[in-house]
Amino acid sequence: MTAQRACGVGDVAVSSAVRVELDGVAIAIVKDSAGDIHAIGDTCTHGEISLSEGFVEDDAIECWAHGSQFELRTGKPKNLPAYEPVPVFPVTIDGDDVLVDVQNPVKL
Protein backbone atom coordinates (compact mmCIF):
# COMPACT_ATOMS: atom_id res chain seq x y z
CA MET A 1 0.00 0.00 0.00
CA THR A 2 1.26 3.47 -0.89
CA ALA A 3 -0.60 5.27 1.87
CA GLN A 4 0.41 8.75 2.91
CA ARG A 5 -0.58 11.03 5.77
CA ALA A 6 -3.74 12.99 5.02
CA CYS A 7 -4.38 14.56 8.43
CA GLY A 8 -4.56 13.80 12.12
CA VAL A 9 -7.44 11.82 13.62
CA GLY A 10 -8.25 14.81 15.81
CA ASP A 11 -8.45 17.13 12.78
CA VAL A 12 -11.86 15.70 11.86
CA ALA A 13 -14.82 16.06 14.21
CA VAL A 14 -17.59 13.47 14.37
CA SER A 15 -20.17 14.01 11.60
CA SER A 16 -17.91 16.34 9.63
CA ALA A 17 -15.34 16.38 6.84
CA VAL A 18 -12.10 18.09 5.87
CA ARG A 19 -10.62 18.55 2.41
CA VAL A 20 -7.06 17.46 1.69
CA GLU A 21 -5.08 17.07 -1.51
CA LEU A 22 -2.80 14.09 -2.03
CA ASP A 23 -0.84 13.62 -5.27
CA GLY A 24 -3.10 16.20 -6.93
CA VAL A 25 -6.27 14.35 -5.91
CA ALA A 26 -8.89 16.22 -3.85
CA ILE A 27 -10.03 13.98 -0.99
CA ALA A 28 -12.74 14.42 1.65
CA ILE A 29 -11.69 12.85 4.94
CA VAL A 30 -14.98 12.15 6.70
CA LYS A 31 -15.74 11.02 10.24
CA ASP A 32 -19.22 9.48 10.29
CA SER A 33 -21.64 9.57 13.22
CA ALA A 34 -20.14 6.35 14.62
CA GLY A 35 -16.65 7.91 14.61
CA ASP A 36 -15.33 5.83 11.69
CA ILE A 37 -13.06 7.64 9.24
CA HIS A 38 -13.51 7.42 5.48
CA ALA A 39 -11.74 8.90 2.45
CA ILE A 40 -13.73 9.69 -0.69
CA GLY A 41 -13.26 11.85 -3.74
CA ASP A 42 -14.08 15.42 -2.70
CA THR A 43 -15.87 16.45 -5.88
CA CYS A 44 -19.60 15.81 -6.34
CA THR A 45 -20.17 13.97 -9.60
CA HIS A 46 -23.19 16.10 -10.38
CA GLY A 47 -21.97 19.65 -10.01
CA GLU A 48 -18.23 19.94 -9.35
CA ILE A 49 -18.92 20.96 -5.73
CA SER A 50 -16.61 20.17 -2.80
CA LEU A 51 -18.28 17.41 -0.75
CA SER A 52 -16.20 18.27 2.32
CA GLU A 53 -18.30 21.45 2.57
CA GLY A 54 -21.45 19.32 2.78
CA PHE A 55 -23.37 17.66 5.58
CA VAL A 56 -22.47 14.31 7.19
CA GLU A 57 -25.31 12.19 8.48
CA ASP A 58 -24.89 8.62 9.65
CA ASP A 59 -22.96 6.85 6.84
CA ALA A 60 -23.37 9.43 4.06
CA ILE A 61 -22.25 12.89 3.01
CA GLU A 62 -24.61 15.29 1.27
CA CYS A 63 -23.61 17.83 -1.35
CA TRP A 64 -24.70 21.21 -0.03
CA ALA A 65 -25.53 22.58 -3.49
CA HIS A 66 -27.91 20.00 -4.94
CA GLY A 67 -28.68 17.55 -2.14
CA SER A 68 -27.16 14.36 -3.55
CA GLN A 69 -25.99 12.02 -0.80
CA PHE A 70 -23.06 9.63 -1.24
CA GLU A 71 -22.48 6.45 0.80
CA LEU A 72 -19.15 6.75 2.58
CA ARG A 73 -18.22 3.06 2.24
CA THR A 74 -19.07 2.68 -1.45
CA GLY A 75 -19.12 6.20 -2.91
CA LYS A 76 -22.46 5.41 -4.54
CA PRO A 77 -25.09 8.15 -4.71
CA LYS A 78 -28.18 7.49 -2.62
CA ASN A 79 -30.37 9.92 -4.56
CA LEU A 80 -30.52 12.16 -7.61
CA PRO A 81 -29.40 14.40 -9.18
CA ALA A 82 -26.03 12.58 -8.94
CA TYR A 83 -25.96 9.13 -10.50
CA GLU A 84 -22.20 8.48 -10.77
CA PRO A 85 -20.27 7.35 -7.69
CA VAL A 86 -17.28 9.16 -6.20
CA PRO A 87 -14.07 7.18 -5.64
CA VAL A 88 -13.40 5.64 -2.23
CA PHE A 89 -9.85 5.24 -0.94
CA PRO A 90 -8.38 2.85 1.64
CA VAL A 91 -7.80 4.41 5.08
CA THR A 92 -5.39 3.25 7.77
CA ILE A 93 -5.14 4.79 11.22
CA ASP A 94 -1.55 4.83 12.51
CA GLY A 95 -1.48 6.35 15.97
CA ASP A 96 -2.92 9.84 15.46
CA ASP A 97 -2.35 9.84 11.69
CA VAL A 98 -4.96 9.20 9.02
CA LEU A 99 -3.20 7.48 6.11
CA VAL A 100 -4.88 7.32 2.69
CA ASP A 101 -3.85 5.34 -0.38
CA VAL A 102 -4.91 7.46 -3.38
CA GLN A 103 -3.03 5.20 -5.82
CA ASN A 104 -5.33 2.23 -5.16
CA PRO A 105 -9.01 3.25 -4.94
CA VAL A 106 -11.37 0.64 -3.53
CA LYS A 107 -12.95 -1.44 -6.29
CA LEU A 108 -16.58 -2.25 -5.58
From TrEMBL:
Alphabetically list the UniProt keywords: 2Fe-2S, Iron, Iron-sulfur, Metal-binding
Quote the Pfam families the UniProt record gives: Rieske (PF00355)
List, for all copies, the residue spans of the domain called Rieske: 4-100
Q: Which InterPro entries match?
A: Rieske_2Fe-2S, Rieske_2Fe-2S_sf
The family database entries (SUPFAM superfamilies) matched by this protein are listed as: ISP domain
Q: Which GO terms describe its molecular function?
A: 2 iron, 2 sulfur cluster binding; metal ion binding; monooxygenase activity; oxidoreductase activity, acting on paired donors, with incorporation or reduction of molecular oxygen
Highest taxon listed in the record's lineage: Bacteria
The UniProt entry, under PANTHER family, shows: 3-PHENYLPROPIONATE_CINNAMIC ACID DIOXYGENASE FERREDOXIN SUBUNIT, FERREDOXIN-RELATED
> What is the designated name of this protein?
Rieske domain-containing protein
